[in-house]
Amino acid sequence: MRILQLSDPHVRVPGDLLSGRVETLPYLQRAIVAVERFRPRPDVVLITGDIVDGGGADEYRLAKVALEQLTLPTFLLPGNHDERGLCRELMGAWLGEVRADDCLAYVLDQFPVRVIALDSVIPGTGQGRLGGEQLQWLDRLLAAGRDRPTLIGVHHPPFEVGIGFMDRLDLVDRNDLATVIGRHPQVVGVVAGHIHRTIVGRLAHAVALTAPSTAHQIPLDLTPDGPATFVFEPPGFLLHEWDGRVLRSHHVYVGDYGRRFPFG
Asked: Which helix (H) or strand (E) holds 60?
């Protein structure tokens, strides 16, 4: 099974540049073209949050038009820039059967790999939290599906990434999530967004990854007090492959980098 992960498009109204520099919508549109051209075709697309930047209805309407160009089964989960009510109202076509109005978590059981989307949004802040009720729901769900290889998606990464200002916008109950995951060996991976670059870690026994943004990236600055900055490194996405035994993940750049040259 192939799961293609897009993340952090941060859609804004055209002309309303993010930080006065980034016209985000065309980046998402180019990523969608790349996804549609990708071969072999993925089985599903998962978008790991920050669909829009300001949480406004106009932004969601633009994101909706863009995502309607995807012909693959596509699902999304919210990030800290998203507004739950509008996300559910205007992007409901790309949500599963959510737990509640205030928790847009759901499970997809129709694929060879079970996909569980979590909701880590704390309204009004950049940090994330799953909360006791959602973690208990996840624990019960995993206990009832021990024979199903499972991939979990969440916006906030469940491990420290080493980029100081982003680690201060962390998943505050990631240790509680690790405890739940540790009880369920069928969890093969946890995929996240938020960091705007590819980083690999672990959560209990499972591999954990963050994805690049379809637009702007966060530079790799490992100094603890480094400034909050972004950079125009190439946009990209991740492609996760489950072969029945191992989860492999590939970083894919969006863009035309010329012809392929033979060795020799």
From this structure: helix 57-67
| Biggest distance spanned by C-alpha atoms of the chain | 59
> How far is residue 20's CA from residue 216's CA, in Å, rounded to a whole number?
13
Residue 123 CB partners (closer than 8 Å, separation 6+): 83, 84
Q: What is the pLDDT of residue 225?
A: 94
DSSP letter (8 states) at residue 177: H
Classify 224 as helix, strand or coil. coil
Task: Say if CB 261 and CB 26 are below 8 A apart.
Answer: no
- Looking at residue 29, which CATH number applies to its domain? 3.60.21.10
Give the tens place of pLDDT for each residue, 38-68.
999 999 999 999 999 999 999 999 999 999 9
Q: Looking at residue 89, what is its pLDDT?
A: 97
**Tokens describing residue 184:** 């369920």
pLDDT of 170 reads 97
Domain count, the chain: 1
Long-range contacts of 88-94 (CB under 8 A, 24+ apart): 90/57, 90/60, 90/61, 90/64, 91/51, 91/60, 91/63, 91/64, 91/67, 93/64, 94/47, 94/67
**Range(s) of the domain holding residue 153:** 2-253
